[in-house]
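Lab notes, practical 5.
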Amino acid sequence: MRLSVRLGSFFLLAALVTACFADDDPNSALKRALTLSSLTGPHAQPFHLKLTISEPANPNSPYRATVEEFWQSPKLWQRNIESPGFQQTISMTGTTQTEQSPGGYYPLWLRNFVTAAIDPLEDSAFWTQVSARVVLTEKSSKSESTSCARAQFKIGTPAVNNDAFAVICFNSDGTLSSVVRPGYDMEFHDVQPFGKKKIAHTYIDDPEPGTKLNGTVDLLEQLQPGAFPAVPGLPNQSSAPIESARINQETFESLANHATLVWPPVHSGNTSGKLSMYVSADSQGHVREAYPLNSDNAGLQSAARDQLLKWQLKPAVSNGKPVQVEAALTFEFSTTTDGPPPSVTSQGNAVPATSPSAKPIVVSPQIANSLRTKAFAPVYPQNLKLNRVSGKVDLDAIIGKDGQIVSLTPKYSTNPAFTDSAIAAVQHWAYKPYLLNGSPVEIETVITINFNAP
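Output from the prediction step:
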C-alpha cells in the first residue's frame, strides 16, 4: 500500500488556536524560538554535542541512550546514537548521506529527545497548520514568565473522534519552555547561552504514566575549524535511511489485521466514552510503542496499550521504500464496573471491595496541589475575556494511583464556557502518587480554577 508522507496527516480536522503568542503575528514567537532554541536554526554555529538520556528512577530502564553530534553545516554533519536495541550512525557530506541503523526501528521516545536537543521546532509547520490567530494567555508576575499557545482539534475518524490538544509555551526571553502535541511532548530547562543562542541543557519527557525520562547535555562546545572527525567504522555500503510517515486512523486500520479492542471492567470512572492513543509501528508492521493521549477513563489506558502492542500491520511502503508509521487513534469503549479493587492489610488479609478503605482517599486541595507535577493553564474564553467577565470553576476530581486524572465532575461554575475550558486543561494535569502506608492509592479532591478578567 502506498502512503502519502505528509506532516500532520493523522488529524481529522484542525480548529482555530484559541490561545497563543504575545503579539498579533502568529509566526513571530515561533520564529524567535527557532532562532534562539535550535542548534541548527538561523545563526547556527558549528557545534559538538553530547547528550545522555535516562530514566533516573530506574537505572536499568530500556529508556536510555547516548547521542553525539558533530555539526559543521547542513551539508556536513555526523551523528551517533547508542541505546539498547538501536544504534544509528549518520554521516552527511554535501548531498550524500550514509547511514547505518542496526535494529531497524527508531524509537519514538528517542527520536523526540534528539529532536528536542538539536532542532526542537523542525515541525514548525504543524503550528501554522492549526493556528490562524494567536493571543497571550499565560503570564505570571514572576521574573520567569511564560506565554503559551493552545490548539484543540479532533483525532480519529469522522464516525469516532476525540479531542486532542497541542500546547507550546515560551519563556519571557523567547526560548522554548515546553511543547505538547500528539507524538511529541517535551519540557526544556536549564537554558544556557551558546553563541547567539540560548540552548536548554535539560529535557524532560513523560511518555507514559509512571515513566519520567531526562535528557542531559553533557557537552556543548563550539566546533573548531578542522576539528570535524571521521566517522569510525562506517562502511562504504550504508543501509537505507529510516523514514517515518504520519498517517490517519483510516489508513492505519486498513493496514491492521484487526482494529478492535476488548475493554475490561473498571474500578471507577466512566464506563463508556472515548479513548485515544498515539501508536508507532516499525517498517515490518509490528506495533512498537503506544502512548496515551486523551481518555474519558484513564483506567483503561493500560489495557488499550497492552492490546495495541500485539497488533500486526501489513508493512507500509512510501515511494517504494518500507517506512515506519505513526498515528493518533481513537476508540469508543463500553464496559462495566467491578467496584473498587480490594486492598491488603499489613497482615496480608484482603479487605472486601465494599470496605470504605478501598474508596478514594479524600485530600485537601492544598495537599493535592503539593503533589502536582504538570499543569496547563486553561484558555480564557475569548468573548468572556473581551467583555472582562471573571469567573470560577470547582471540579470534583479523582486522581489515580499513577497520578493521572481519572475523572472530573463539575461542582460549581459561574459560566458553562469556563467549565469547558477548565476541564479541557485539567484533564491533562499530572500528580505524584499519593502514598498511604507506603502504597499508592486513588485520591479525591477539589480543583479550583479562577478566571480573572484583565
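Observations recorded by the TA: Residues 108-118 form the longest helix (11 residues). The CA atoms of residues 218 and 426 lie 35 Å apart.
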